[in-house]
Amino acid sequence: MIIQAFLRWVETARTGDRARAANALGRAYAKAEINGLDRHAAEMAMTFLLDDPSPKVRLALVEALADCPAAPRAIVRALAEDQPEIAFAAIARSPVLTDADLVDLAARGTAETRALIAARGTVSCSVAAAIAEIGDEEEVTILLENGGAVLLQGSLRRIAHRLGHEAAVRDRLLARADLPSDARHSLAEKIGAAISASGLVQAVIGSARMERVTREACDATALAMTVAASPNEMPRMVAYLRESGRLTPAFLMNALCSGATEFFTLAMVDLSGLSEKRVRSLLSGGRAHSTRALFESAGLAPDVSEAFAEAVLYWRAQAGEGAPASLAALLERLRRKPASTSASVTELVERLCFAEQRQVARNYAFIASRQAA
């Protein structure tokens, strides 16, 4: 009877009075101050208020119901699709909205709607994935800053692919320990591309040199990431580098000479199509011609495969003798076969050898300066 009287009164009451009454009704429902028989009538009354011509009335209702875990989902969902100031309270706070509701609201809503969803206290992996797929920089940044958001690696990769060129997004991705290695490297390449495109940088060191320096820096970064990658991540990292055109002979020789044997082995498996067991057997004990055949099956030219076979045989021999491998010794070995060894590969090993010498010199200078002090 009370609800019926309320509905008769609403028809003639002023806007301010209706708003206060709607808020009181919603709070009473949220506090369970209405018995079981009246709750249904109260729900009918709140449903009737959804059609009130004044947004103040609907705003008063949503403010009363937004935090209620027992609020009628249909009513809250309708309020979440109302005009912005009404919808925002429901979207940002209501615990009764399901993941399906939130994904639908994110897909059909505005950037402001997605930002509110991204800022909720808890954001499930499916809702986070929806925002990662369609969100712009601002809402994705909010999502990455939200400690209650569950972001799977697939979502992080998608964000890196879509918005990695945005500094705010990139910085927050790189700060995450759970960022996959392939996504981390793609962000490093985006940084390199941004630096290369700088007019100031090109004017200072020249576009050609900048391109070479950027390429070498990205290769070094990729190699460092492959070494640090977990066993589960490494095959995906190999596939990513192949798809992005990074598995060049120069990069592979760099990996081999740097001691990244596990990565090099998996790269040969990926490129050759042979089984991992067969590749490991050839690299660890295969004869020269079978080792060359492995490299040629991976797409390396005959002269390049000769250089790789020499490098593998040299490293294998050094390991068998318990002696440390030397890039200088490998370089000398390659120079003794100029007719069959690729000049570009020999030049690469020479650059690696010189880079190693420079690092030794830096270390020596650092130690000497410390001792002098």
- Poorly predicted runs: none
Mean pLDDT over the residues: 82
Return Rg in Å: 32 Å
**Percentage of β-strand residues:** under 5%
What's the helix count? 23
What structural class should be given to the helix and strand makeup? mainly alpha
User: Percent helix among the residues?
Assistant: over 70%
Largest sheet: none
Kindly state the number of beta strands.
Answer: 0
Q: What's the shape?
A: elongated
Distance between the termini: 92 Å
Order of helices and strands: HHHHHHHHHHHHHHHHHHHHHHH
Description of the structure:
- The protein is mainly α and 373 residues long.
- Among the domains are: 1-97; 247-373, no CATH class.
- The protein has 23 helices and no strands.
- It has helices at residues 2-10, 15-30, 36-49, 55-65, 73-80, 84-93, 99-108, 111-118, 125-134, 137-145, 153-163, 167-174, 181-196, 199-205, 207-228, 234-243, 249-257, 261-272, 276-285, 288-297, 302-321, 327-335, 343-372.
- It is elongated and about 105 Å long.
- The mean pLDDT is 82.
- It comes from Sinorhizobium glycinis.
- Pfam families: DUF2336.
